[in-house]
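Researcher: I'm preparing a figure for a lab meeting and need a structural model of a single chain. I don't have an experimental structure, so a prediction will have to do for now. The sequence is pasted below. Please return the structure as tokens so I can convert it later.
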Amino acid sequence: MDYINCTVLSRDLAKDLGKKENDSDLEFYHRAYNDVALTFICPPGFPEKVGPLLQALHLSNCVVLYVDKIDAILGEVILAIDASEIKQGFVVFDPIVDEEMFQKISENTCVKGFERIEKDEILEKVSSMKPVKVEGNTVIDLDAMFDVKSVGTVALGFVAGGEIEQFQKLKAFPKNEEVLVKSIQKQDKVFKRAEFNERVGLALKGINAEGFSRGMVLTNDESFKGLNEFEIDFEKNSFYKKELTEGLGLHIQCRLQTAGCQIESLNPLKITTGKSIAARSDEKIILIDINANPRIIGRGKIIKI
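Model: Understood. Here is the structure written out token by token.
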């Protein structure tokens, strides 16, 4: 079976597309269609916070963008999709929307290439996609962790690289703690392994939920580290009008992690974070100014750690 994860910006639409898993600022809706396991990821924490939107996009292979009006929120969504480099997606227009205006504001972004479809085509179109599998080392992005009596520590997340097997030993970053995968669940059923893109529940030994924050990474990739200082190859978007300066306090989005950060130097661009984050060289990042409009400053990648 193939597994596809798709960001949906409308909670009402997400409810029509799949069965809801959780209540959060980042919600998951599951559906099997055409022998494909679909997870629709909706960030109801946006637009109050931009972090959940960027987290949803990080987990996704594609986007379904429902456009019912042209406003600043839509503009920020388009910037977020472009900064996340999501090149596969679909646009569903409400009849009242000026499509020519949408084409103007999406010009020079990934969204310009999205296919225009109707609501009743979503499941067929998304399930027909063929996402490129990330082979190699095991990488799991965790979005939740809790302690369960008689079970121990349970973590929820997505397989972002390779596959995971029962009894596999991994490292948990950014803390660099060794953990053992005692068991794997998918949709409340026990399995011995899980593949790329799958939603998993993991019973873990060697770690507990105390101090957990969304974005912890489980991996056997030795290039991952817990970082709070790094150099970035950065591209600012043209809609952010402020100048970056040394000492400026911002936020950084890396995988599912959001952290406060400060610019230490401009050439090269060096960043320090208030807390360690899990990352490796060439990791994609997005810089955020929570006091600006739009909040997304631009995208980059870590080039020196």
